[in-house]
Structure formats: structure tokens, C-alpha cells
């Protein structure tokens, strides 16, 4: 579908305070933030301590700042592009910008990225749940607490993930998001409290240095973890269909995304990353739950099992945008009178694929995540938003060319006016940017694109180390 809602109308500037003053809009933000937090963080909280232990305090924090700001920037670009082109999802936006093939490239990138995330997340469910059960009772049978967690990941998908995936709207995951956030806060508090009580031992003995470069392989892997920890673009865009129309709706999603990336995710990642590495230093495990935080035994086991539940809660936040894209590939007539049945078929197919790959290759799911992430994140989070930006800025997008060719049709002036909002003043032929426009519209997007390419190259390089 090219658009998902009614035509937008021109509106005045909408500030964050304008949004939170209105009860309906404030309620929308309160629904979007938990669901989006669940989708963005997911299993990324588990390896950040290891990444910090490898890069060191200063380097780790610097990489986090750069990647978080870059992702927040491209999210805002996409939302501005959606407003200017009067579209309501990522796929429809790219159709308006570059036509059918650009839309298909976008859809393939989204599906590859999110299916890879679902496969990796499913394998993590089994791994984390196994660690939790073993901490409680080390003599459990192999089929339950061994076998790479196959039984436990299957149980989690069937009992928790599948029912949540049947929600009709993304915003309905808000309560799952709140529960998941409470679990992550519990893990964060456990890490911070233990680290503080032990007086940051790895910082004192310098096994967690200010700058740490143990090996090129470890550094590239750490950059990969940070580089993929903040991607929100494909998860964010479907919310445009579930918020009020117009600039207010765009701003609701924009402010919610900034809150999630720059506050929720950033603070949680930093606290877990810094304080976790400050306890174990070079002995920090790639999965933080393999280190001890609650004196071991039942308490540690319950925490780990709770994190397995959290990973289950996070999976539907990746399934929803995947289903949204795949739904657009199916003929409109397919189960036209049975939308819930259509929903069920797509969801079952996605979860079966993710579980099947994780069951067959439980120990290789990390490589699946690296490959799909390196290609998908680069495309969806960096390359596509920046290419869209340059197309709109230079008046070379499909919708701009069509608007320029039409002399007089109903609504064409409104379309042209909306398109002009993207850069403020349309660039004429042969007119180049000057001064602050050069920095804003050309230099910053180019730097952000370079960040995305660097993270992807770093990720792919880990496959050979």
C-alpha cells in the first residue's frame, strides 16, 4: 500500500509541551514509549557490559553517544519525510521517493533485518532460560536444561510470544513493554548495586581501563554491539498508523522515539555496560547473565528466568513490523473477509521460521544476527533515510517530479506546499546550499551515513575473526 490513512493537512509547529498538554496525545506517547522501548532494547542489554570491557570507559561512551545521536537523527529524517510526502509507513514513503524498486529494496531490507533479529532473539530465550534453570538446580534433565535450550525457546514462543503477536495494534504491547522495562530495571539495579558495594573493583585494579584495545577482533565486535543497539527505524514507522493524523501524530512518534533512544535505552545501556564491566573487567562475559549478580543460586536463577521472559516480551515488537511489511506483499483478495485469519497465517509463518532456524542452528544464530544486522541495519537505519533525504533535497524524488509535471489538479498546490516543508525553501535548478544549509542538509547526513557504513563493515569483519 502506498499510504495507510487519510491525507494530512498543513499545520503549525507542534512542541513537546503542546503534545503533553492534550490528554489524547499524552496518552498516545505513554502507549508508544513502552512498546518502542521493548522493540529497541531487546537482547541488546546482554552484551553491552562486555562491549564496554573491551573498548574501555571513554571509547565505549563515545561510541554510544555517536550511534544514539545518529539513529535519533535518521528517525527524525524519516518522520519528516513521511510528513512531507503524506505517507504513513516506511514502505509507502520509499515508494513515493524512489518508486516500486526502491520500495521493494526497502521491504527486503526490513524483513532481512527483523527476521534475523527474531532468530537471534529466539536463540537467546533458550540460552538465558537455561542459565536461569541451571542456577536454581544444576541436576535438571538434559531435555529441559540442556540441548542448547531448544525446549525452553519453543515453550517461550508458544506460551508468551505467539499470543502477544496476535494483538491487532502495536500500541497494545504497551503493558508488555512496562513489564519488560521493570525486569530490565531489576537487572540494572542488581548490576549497579553489586558494583557499588564492591567499590568498582575492575576500575580500581585497572582491568577495566579508560581506553581498552585488547585486539582488533574484539574492538570490531564491540562496535557491532553498540552499532546495532539503537536501531529503531522499522519498529517506529508503523506507529504512524496508530496515532492522530497530521503533524501532531508525527511529533508524537518523534518525541517518543527520542525519549526511548536518548533516555531509556541510552541510560540502561550505560548503567549496565559501565557498572557490569566495573565488576568483572576482562572477565565480563558476552552474556552478562553468565556473570553472578545476586550471590548465585535461586535469586540469580529467578533474575535470569525473568530476563528470558523479557526476551519473549520483546519478540512481538520485532514481529509486528515484519508482519506489516509481509502483509503488503500478499494480494488484497487473500482472506479479504477474514483479516484475523490473514494475521494468524502471517504471524505463524514468521514465528515458525524464526524458531525453526534457531532450533536447527542454535549456536550459529549469532552469525545470522551479524550478517542480517550488518546489511539490514545499514540499509534501514542509515542508507535509505539518507538517500531519501538527498532525493527530496535535490527535488529528484518520484513524488516531486510528478508534482512538477502536473499543471492544475485538485490538491496539487497542497502537495507542493507539503513537500516544500522538508527543507523550508525548495532548491531551484543549479542552486547549491550555502553556509548552515550545507552543514544541515549535506555534511551531517554524510557523516551519519559514514557511521552506519563503519558499523556494518565492523560487523562483517567479525565473521572472519
From TrEMBL:
Keywords: Amino-acid transport, Membrane, Transmembrane, Transmembrane helix, Transport. It is a multi-pass membrane protein. The keyword Manganese does not apply. The keyword Flavoprotein does not apply. InterPro entries: AA_transpt_TM. The chain crosses the membrane at residues 28-46, 52-73, 110-136, 148-166, 173-193, 213-232, 259-281, 293-313, 343-362, 368-391, 441-463. Pfam families: Aa_trans (PF01490). One of its GO terms (cellular component) is organelle membrane. Its main location: membrane. GO terms for biological process: amino acid transport. This is Amino acid transporter transmembrane domain-containing protein. The lineage of its organism: Eukaryota, Viridiplantae, Streptophyta, Embryophyta, Marchantiophyta.
